[in-house]
Amino acid sequence: METEVVLETNQLKKYFGAVKAVEDISLSVKRAEIYGFLGPNGSGKTTTISMILGLMRPTAGEVKVFGETVTPEQNSVLKRVGMMVGAPALLPPFTARQNLQMMATMHPDLPESRIDETLKLVDLYPAADRKAKTFSMGMKQRLGIALALLNKPELLILDEPTNGMDPAGMHEIRQLLRSLSSEGITIFLSSHLMHEIEQVCDRVAVVQKGSMVAQGTIAELLSGDPIVSIHTNDTTGTVKVLEKLENARSIETKERFVYVQGIASSQVIEALVQEHVVPEEVSVTRPDLESVFLSLTK
Ligand SMILES: Nc1ncnc2c1ncn2[C@@H]1O[C@H](COP(=O)(O)OP(=O)(O)OP(=O)(O)O)[C@@H](O)[C@H]1O
User: Fold this and answer.
1) For ligand 1, atom 7, which residue shows the shortest CA distance?
2) How far is the CA of 295 from the centre of ligand 1 (A)?
3) Residue 21 beta carbon below 6 angstroms from any ligand 1 atom
4) What is the pLDDT of residue 2?
5) What's the predicted TM-score (pTM) here?
6) Is position 293 within any domain?
7) pLDDT score recorded for residue 99
8) From the CA of 191, how far away is ligand 1's center (Å)?
9) Scanning 70, 87, 145, 241, which has its CA 20 to 30 A from the CA of 80?
10) How many structural domains is the chain composed of?
11) Which residue lies with its CA nearest to atom 1 of ligand 1?
12) Which residue among 222, 243, 273 closes a domain?
């Protein structure tokens, strides 16, 4: 059976006058996956999330959540969605439990037991009666996520949940996201931090200047050709030789190195020796997500 798509956007666009904040975003998120929405600052992530949450009308295109179109007027399906956009909306002088009790007043149908259940889900049950202001960054963020989880959402949307956090806090959030995913909750996570996405997400969309430049599993994004690195005293001569080779692409120079893709190292060596531009050393590496991300968002 085909895995259910819980969130999709089709050719989504949002213009603010001349500013094309979102140009063309078509993505699909499947049930129970952790989906990373990765892009540099200003690439249109928050604007996309605002449209997903029905807070903003698209200039063109559409958002569907659980198969239903979402607009500012038609958003009842968002009852099935939890969200945390930016810093957690906590009341610091109150305990974790009191924070959840106050949120519960907005969901009168929830049983009282859901508060303890949610505290356990984010591993804050032992700290339930401590004031939020005494919490570490990671604990505050987990409480913010608890507020988003209180109403038992099937889809959780988090915009930059680890922005400004210390490494320990980031680690706690990653662990929490994995455990929520194993409970069957789908997570849509936006971030400009590649390592965060790489470590926790099943699939990733990479956005740049409002357009999607890649979507796939981390393995798919990394499956590009190996990079041939040439250490040389003559970068200009090396580049000239490479430019003449069929299939050679993405030729780049950095200090005394020239990088090329699309061609085997043996062909590179043969061509350079033939043209008497003998390299010091030639090696082959696979691109890591950082270099894929940088080359996609250049
Ligand atoms: N209300 C608005 N009016 C005009 N321009 C806007 C508005 N909101 C966003 N923009 C612009 O749209 C572009 C995308 O912004 P957006 O906040 O969606 O990016 P982002 O990827 O979330 O970035 P960040 O990580 O910095 O929040 C930016 O150039 C931003 O300045």
Assistant:
1) 16
2) 22
3) yes
4) 57
5) 0.80
6) no
7) 97
8) 14
9) 87
10) 2
11) 16
12) 222
Q: Is the dihedral of CA 34, 39, 41, 47 positive or negative?
A: negative
C-alpha 38 to ligand 1 mean position (Å): 14
Q: How far does the chain reach from its first CA to its final CA, in angstroms? A: 38
Task: Show the domain range for 249.
Answer: 227-286
The complex's ipTM? 0.95
The response to whether residue 43 sits with its C-beta less than 6 Å from ligand 1 reads yes
Cα-to-centroid distance, 21 and ligand 1 (Å): 6
15 and 125 inside one domain: yes
Contact indicator for 190, 9 with CB cutoff of 8 Å: no
Contacts of 91 (CB under 8 A, 6+ apart): 98, 99, 102, 132
Residue 291 lies in a domain: no
Low-confidence ranges of the chain (pLDDT < 70): 1-3
Of 173, 196, 222, the domain-final residue: 222
The CA distances from residue 247 to 119, 203, 231, 258, 273, in Å, are 56, 29, 20, 16, 19
Is residue 260 within 8 A of residue 228, CB to CB? The reply is yes
The answer to whether the CB of 192 is under 6 A from ligand 1 is: yes
Q: Are the C-beta atoms of 25 and 190 separated by less than 8 Å?
A: no
Q: Are residues 99 and 217 in the same domain?
A: yes
Q: For residue 298, is it within any domain?
A: no
Same domain flag for 144 and 210: yes
